[in-house]
Fold these 3 entries.
Entry 1:
Amino acid sequence: MSALEVQIDRIVGPTHHFGGLGVGNLASQLNAGQASNPQAAALQGLDKMRLVASLGVPQLILPPQPRPDFHLLADLGYRGAPEETLKAVLESDPALLSAAASCSAMWTANAATVTPSCDSEHGMPVMTVANLNASLHRSIEAAATREELRALFRSGVRLHDALPGGAALRDEGAANHMRLAESTGKRGLHVFVHGDGKPAPRHHWPRQTLATGKAISRTHGLREADVFHVKQHPDAIDAGAFHNDVVAMSHHDLLIHHELAFAPESESQMLRLERRFAEISGKCLRVIRIHSEELTLTDAINTYFFNSQIVSSSNSGKPVWTILCPVQVQHHKQAHRLIQRLCADGVFQEAHFVDLGQSMDGGGGPACLRLRVPVTEHELGCICKSAWWTESLDSDLRDIINERYPHRLKLADLADAEFCYKALETQRLLSSRLGHDLAGR
Ligand code: SUG
């Protein structure tokens, strides 16, 4: 196994708006009803993909999923011509219109949980599409995500359907999963983070369950000794960390987490993790625990410090670790100082600050916007060619976005059938440029 890690991002769709739909997601709730800028959102995402690709990291691009989802509206009893349907939904249930038009699939870290071939008894990469059952607007992503992952990886992966089981098996994908492995990528340990169980958070509903982590570790063919089920700290969930990747980040043999990321009951699992890592690799897991005096939980959540995206590449044979932080980190004294310290200590060779304002206002930072897939050279070669980032693809996608995306959108604009037809047509254009034929749904 090499240490290659593919990053999969998705173009933000033309119906991107602030619906306030994110369960326990403070930014989403705070910005509910504000005017969004879909064009800026899509370009900001593409700027990050360009940066990642320029670092020599394999970058794949997915098209937006088709929105509004008229099938959802029809399934819920809104039938008839789109012109009337959209107006009727806006009037009777605006949150449903928002859900049907949501571009939340942009946050691909929630798309699936991924196990590389070297860790699985199946001997091939395994992916489980996340059911995203904690919220309506996200639960409608799974069916198309499955088709997209199948189109990207073809027969090269064992692709599992979203877990059944409704609320009991709430699954938000890789946002609550960390794979730790020595830097050559050989044999990884898998940490599944859940929020249910006692003590429970007082204000927000946990989005991931222990039963989900257990099911995925079984179906992915992981060795029991290499799996760790860790409970998220209820205070973190209540402070607005609705996913683990808002309070912890990891890459290869590095784990950086806030001291309030994990519940005290999980201490023994964390110790077992460190012991197991040393046992299988002969090396120490590098754990950096950030204390509240260095960065409060509130500041961690406001800046999305822990949602920075870590990537690595090599320069003349030397590894280069790069961290892509939200620009909010640069503007925050303590958070910025922490990044400077991590760079001075040699944890990262480079730091970049990226403006993802439109995604951040929906509660998603750099790491939310990518699904990482560790692959071998051979597996890399089997991935669908048309989805790879290239200069000419980037330029064509930008042309479509600049020409067809709105600069300003509010929920009421989504009741305009002409606008929605154009949005669906734009999605089809982007899909076809990316070689996907998913416009059917
Ligand atoms: O599920 N926001 C997303 C943000 C997901 C962030 N992902 C990770 N942390 N990996 C969510 O809460 C907001 C939609 C709205 O407000 O319209 C939203 O769905």
Note: The mean pLDDT is 96.
Entry 2:
Amino acid sequence: MSQLKIYNTLSRQKEVFEPILPNHVGLYVCGPTVYSDVHLGNCRTFISFDIIYRYLKYLGYKVRYVRNITDAGHLEGDRDEGDDKFSKKARLEQLEPMEIVQRYTVGFHKVMELFNTLPPTIEPTATGHITEQIRMAQQIIDNGYAYVVDGTVYFDVEKYNKEKPYGILTNRKLEDLLEGTRELGGQDEKRGRLDFALWIKAGPEHLMQWPSPWGMGFPGWHIECSAMSEKYLGKQFDIHGGGMDLAATHHTNEIAQSQACYKTSPVRYWMHTNMLTVNGVRMSKSAGNGFLPEELFSGSHPLLEKAYAPMNVRFFMLQTHYRSTLDFSNEALQAAEKGMKRLWDAYEALKDFEWEAGENSIDAELNDKVNKLVAEFDEHMSDDFNTARVLASMFELVPVINSMKDKTIAISAIAKETLELLQAKFKDYLEDVFGLQAVNEADNTKLQGVMQLLIDIRKEAKSKKDFATSDKIRNQLAALGINLKDEKGGEMSWSVE
Ligand code: AMP
Ligand code: ZN
């Protein structure tokens, strides 16, 4: 088996993967901030790491996979002052912050399940690890790298940078980073422009706050990942992942905190996924181009020409390497649908092939070709998880499989072991490593048709002021877990709970 190579953001090159403990991997991935629904961009990152997790397991590693839930301490605009995202939403919706957290955690899990991603082995929450975060902040103060101003604890970036390069992860000098940040205002309590909060003082209006040696407050966003990764994976662990947008600040601060606290670089391999874009613009909540997965599955977003099944979306993501940007479009998704169908049909046929010694002898050239292409699955995947190239090798095998299906080539034109390997590797890769499942296209199209019919009947009923019928349709669908929403201009959209 080829050696696994991983592109390490820290060294900016591919490195041979050597785990700290033989046969074991500690993997930490920054999870969602559960104050709203995850969009498809977030899903790309989580699906990419799901495939990485699955492949590590496939290679025989015992993996401890920690993906946190950020349920406190993430402030608006990733800043150090103001309200946290949960309290803001809670006020808006007149709910408890923990009701917000629960609603979106449940929603996130549901989406992850629809995409057939495996749950992490530990899913710790920030609110469940307040004492660990306080302890870490205290240790950083004791070591001389943080200071307290009126109940808030700041990390002293310039002091730290005198000993360790702060911008090491993204290869940037402190002077350049300083140039890119705003001047300290007269009111600012920070000593340096790049200093960030480990702990934030809470005013009486703050809904979520805890006692600490510095008074009532709540943890900063960065300290939670440092505290939780240390707790479950140790002071140094193998792989830390997240979206590329997290490298410059969140992960840079994680490294600084752990170094300042434990005098060790916390992570051996830093992995970053590239962004999902729409017309070249990064998908994000603030840009307003964030499709929700359920809008995609029901086709109810105005930019969507039709509904797309979760497995086709997953396949769409697999066709691009995780370090390349991936642009969302209807054409690309429809091409992915066709591609997946072609591949899956071949796989279904392949499963039923039985080798029998035929009259023809083995075609050595074809046999070699099949063996070579099958061997490439592991080679490509071990080359920094290149799912796109694995799929390309699989597609090269499709015409061979189809010819065997049509009997234009005899199954016995390849050796029995070659056929068995081909069957086993297709299963391993499509189902176990890529986590794909058959798509029931017919069901999907039928449901679309039925929903459109019900929407038409309801529109008609409404126009005749027949509210009994209109309400009946909406309520009975709701009882089935399908939500109909009245949009502007009399339009209706629907989503499955
Ligand atoms: P958040 O809930 O905002 O903390 O984000 C959760 C994860 O999704 C992080 O790892 C982000 O880097 C990642 N992410 C956010 N936007 C995108 C995007 N457009 N494409 C890929 N990953 C993203
Ligand atoms: Zn994190």
Note: Residues 285-433 form a domain with the Isoleucyl-tRNA Synthetase; Domain 1 fold (CATH 1.10.730.10).
Entry 3:
Amino acid sequence: MDKIIYLDHAATTPVDEQVLKEMIPYFTTNFGNPSSVYSIGKGNRKKIDKAKKQIADSIGCLPEEIYITSCGSESDNLAIKGIAKANKSKGRHIITSKIEHPAVLETCKKLEAEGFDVTYINVDEKGIIKLDELKRSIRRDTILISIMYANNEIGTIQPIEEIGQIARKNNIYFHTDCVQAVGNIKINAKKQNIDSISISAHKFYGPKGTGALFIRSGIPFMRELDGGHQEKNKRAGTENVAGIIGMGKAIEIADENLEEYNKRLKFLRDLYVKSVIDKIQYIHINGDMKNRLPGNSNISFLGIRGATLVEELDKRGICASSGSACSAGIIQPSNVILATGCKRNIAESSLRITFGRENTVEDVRYLVDCISDIVDKYRN
Ligand code: PLP
């Protein structure tokens, strides 16, 4: 096998060459601590400020409303725990959805153990949250709504504007996990009434280990990581200067090329889905084909476990993913697909393919041929 075909861009993306080029000097010559008073330190502080402006410009907020973190999970933790703990005198009720990433679900569980009350909203058969249920769940003590912008498994995009309006009308803070959305969807925190956004650089061709959190100014939130006074006293730790510079550059590139990239991703994704429909029987398409991330596809191939498909594809040089996880030797079906009302056999047999900038039509053809062979082999 001479070539790897990478089709798991929702898991992570390679670092863009231009991004890497901007980052390299900050590991070696420009290594100063941004809190230092000498010039190689102060210069790096300016670079961090520039990156915050690049991020803020991308999501329609102010640079001073951006806090740097280490990843999307940290951003989710800081936003949800931070806002909940700082506002608990107003109420202890939080609303989220059943299809959030574990970074949100586990954070909510932790808060439940600490005396908060969490409502988990259902989704419909396409994976879209039920707005009526959201409205009905609001209580006098609701302080926070946390609903993801786009789902990591089935790519479904939520009605964020409507959720923002509901939250604003009811005077509730609205956090959205945008880890899968940033770089794929144009977001505007102000126009969409969003109070808090989680971001992770490695999902849009930036480096791993770098994330960001937007929290609208004036919203009280408590820090999670104690120590120095970095990030306006909200998150201690010497800044990952190279990573932050890379995140700023990566978000700028994604924004400048958003339309072109999306058109291409959508073309490859649609070609893949159509080819599968034409060639393979007994499939189930998970998620919504309209309100969906451009490069995301999630199809269940009945009778074959998703994990088996992923292993077989790997033998053929293809990196893909399945929503089902193997825990202690037992296959756990995708909780996201189960939440859409699908039966266990569908949730166990899903294959997530997420296209990226470097993929080609030849990759799609090879992928469909491989899946077709594997399906034949296992169904027979
Ligand atoms: N939220 C969503 C929707 C994700 O897809 C992910 C990662 O896959 C995360 C949060 C966590 O991000 P990170 O891996 O940067 O911690």
Note: The pocket of pyridoxal-5'-phosphate is lined by residues 71-73, 76, 101, 103, 148, 152, 177, 179-180, 200, 211 (CB under 6 Å).
